[in-house]
Amino acid sequence: MKIQFNKVLTRSLLTIALTGIVGTATAAATMEVYKSPTCGCCANWVDIMRDNGFTVNIHDVGNDEARAEAGISTELGSCHTALVNGYAIEGHVPVEDIKRLLKERPRAVGLSAPGMPHGSPGMETGRVDSYNVLLIRKPGDKRSAAEIYNQYGPDKLQQTNKTSENSNTTDSVLRLK
Q1: How far apart, in Å, are the Cα atoms of 9 and each of 1, 5, 13, 20?
Q2: Who's near 126: CB < 8 A, 6+ residues apart?
């Protein structure tokens, strides 16, 4: 009985420790954010990322070059581009979607919340628009080729779409020089 209890205790402690390590690895990730020095909504989004455990380095140089290097088309563009753990995050993507991306590690360029949707993180203006967070599979993908990763809006509960179990989930496709 004592041996069985010790096994259960050891397994439980190991599970707790490993869960903590995985959670910490995601939350402790460092983000490089490229934005305009005068954009208040971008600064608000950065604050949300920091409040959720990310280390954020800000580059106030605009994001056109970073977006292009990451392989995100202008059609999927927004006001800031973040690079984290081999993925690009374009625009006001909610932190829950970023953490999910970093946990699942799909083969992709990253995520985009195209434009600047009202009600998205950093864009809390009192108005809430419906918007999609898109998974960008290949560099240069247009909106029609991107997959809906999550949906938000006043008429929708948060809907999480699971990536296909058959998809290659080994690595990002983002390759910066």
Answers
A1: 12, 6, 6, 16
A2: none
Structure tokens at 62: 């605009």
| CA separation for the pair 53, 70 (Å, rounded) | 23
Indicate the residue type of 50: R
Distance (Å, whole) CA 81 – CA 31 = 10
The reported pTM is 0.75
One-letter-per-residue 3-state SS of the chain: CHHHHHHHHHHHHHHHHHHHHHHHHHHCCEEEEECCCCCHHHHHHHHHHHHCCCEEEEECCCCHHHHHHHCCCHHHCCCCEEEECCEEEEECCCHHHHHHHHHHCCCCCEEEECCCCCCCCCCCCCCCCCEEEEEECCCCCCCCCCEEEEEECCCCCCEECCCCCCCCCCCCCCCCC
CA distance 34 to 83: 9
Mean pLDDT of all residues in 78-101:
98
Alpha-carbon gap, residue 128 to 109, rounded angstroms: 27
**What is the mean pLDDT of the segment spanning 145-158?**
85
For residues 72 and 1, what is the distance between their CA atoms, to the nearest angstrom?
58
Structure tokens at 139: 């560099």
